[in-house]
Amino acid sequence: MIPGPVKEMLARNSTFAQTYRAGPSLMQMATAMRGTGAGVVVLSCSDPRLNPYQILGLDQTLKATMVRNAGGRVFDAIRTLAVLQTIGAPGTIVVMHHTDCGMTHFHDATIKKALTEIAPEASQSIEASSFGEITGSIEESVREDLALLKASPLIKKSTLLLGMKYEIETGVLTVVEASGAEGSQPASL
Ligand SMILES: [Zn+2]
């Protein structure tokens, strides 16, 4: 049984597919990207109010690859970020956290309690896990996540790391921290 909203999505997809024109193949795209360093990966939150394509004005001339998870947390995205480096060799990773984020309201203790009710048999592993709570400021969580990227052996040291804060109340995006993976400040900032 397909719920109403998904039925509507499938109907809209039918319309979409009628005028869809496929882009380059993965191998064509990856080959074009590799070596240029032009690729940008944006890690942000799953919050449906936060639309990275709109916030960043992305279109056919200005593309970026998106990674999204609860809070836009690095520990949860490291596999994807590492894999993307091997495919398109992006020169920049942007970590975007936002105000009024679910992870600032639903802390690990609350999430663990809820998950333990769903899966009591997994209570030990739930208790031992981190779920990405943000207990301080957004600037702090962004810096924390850039530090994780810098410390990761899977992230190339030449990657430019940009930490950003998005104010969901105003639409304003600001750079919190910018550095190379080795801690150097980029000359352009
Ligand atoms: Zn969020």
Give a quick summary of the entry.
The protein has 8 helices and 5 strands, in the order ααβαβαβααααββ. With 189 residues, the protein is of the alpha/beta class. Bound molecules: zinc ion.
Give the helix/strand layout.
Layout: H1 4-19, H2 26-33, E1 40-45, H3 52-55, E2 65-69, H4 78-88, E3 92-98, H5 102-105, H6 108-118, H7 123-128, H8 138-151, E4 160-166, E5 173-180
Parallel strand pairs: 1-2, 1-3, 3-4
Antiparallel strand pairs: 4-5
This protein binds zinc ion.
Zinc ion (ZN) binds at residues 45, 47, 71, 98, 101-103.
Architecture overview:
A five-stranded mixed β-sheet has the order 2-1-3-4-5, covered by helices on one side. It contains eight helices and five strands. The protein has helices at 4-19, 26-33, 52-55, 78-88, 102-105, 108-118, 123-128, 138-151; strands spanning 40-45, 65-69, 92-98, 160-166, 173-180. The model has no long low-confidence stretch (mean pLDDT 94). With 189 residues, it is an alpha/beta fold. It has one domain (26-180): 3-Layer(aba) Sandwich (Beta-carbonic Anhydrase, Chain A), CATH 3.40.1050.
Please compute the radius of gyration using only Cα atoms.
19 Å
User: Could you give the order of the helices and strands?
Assistant: HHEHEHEHHHHEE
Query: Mean pLDDT, nearest integer?
Result: 94
Helix vs. strand class:
alpha/beta
E-strand count = 5
Gap from first CA to last CA: 53 Å
Q: Into which percentage range does the β-strand content fall? A: 15-25%
List keywords for this structure.
Beta-carbonic Anhydrase, Chain A, alpha/beta, 39% helix, globular
